[in-house]
Amino acid sequence: MSIRRVVPNIPVGAGDGTEAGAAAMRDNAAFYGLLGFEEVMNQGWIMTLASPTRPTAQISVMTADRTGPVTPDLSVEVEDVDAVHASLTGAGAEIVYGPHDEEWGVRRFFVRDPNGRVINVLTHR
């Protein structure tokens, strides 16, 4: 299995699209900007910041996952999400969501790790 990137998902602000959530996004963009990160994606409820010199070095801040049942703690982009899903299912892992093709161009599922953390496993289509 080939891993393309691993991104921590930092929960921030209100998950209801309020000004508090937008302010949390702005505050995080400003803070992580001081560390050299730049915004590369923002859907209002999730914003990804990346290093301009190492684009796979990323952090996401998320008010709440728009389509999943929970907000994942970590995202792992893989080459073949269906193969990873089959491997985890075969090993008896708890699948929390999906697999599902999302409107923003990813196929993903959520799995719970041994520590109770929810991992968003995805492939860009």
TrEMBL record:
Domain spans labelled VOC: 1-124
Matches recorded under InterPro entries: Glyas_Bleomycin-R_OHBP_Dase, Glyas_Fos-R_dOase_dom, VOC_core
Gene3D superfamilies the UniProt entry points to: 2,3-Dihydroxybiphenyl 1,2-Dioxygenase, domain 1
Membrane-spanning ranges: none
A Pfam family recorded for this sequence: Glyoxalase
Protein name from the UniProt record: VOC family protein
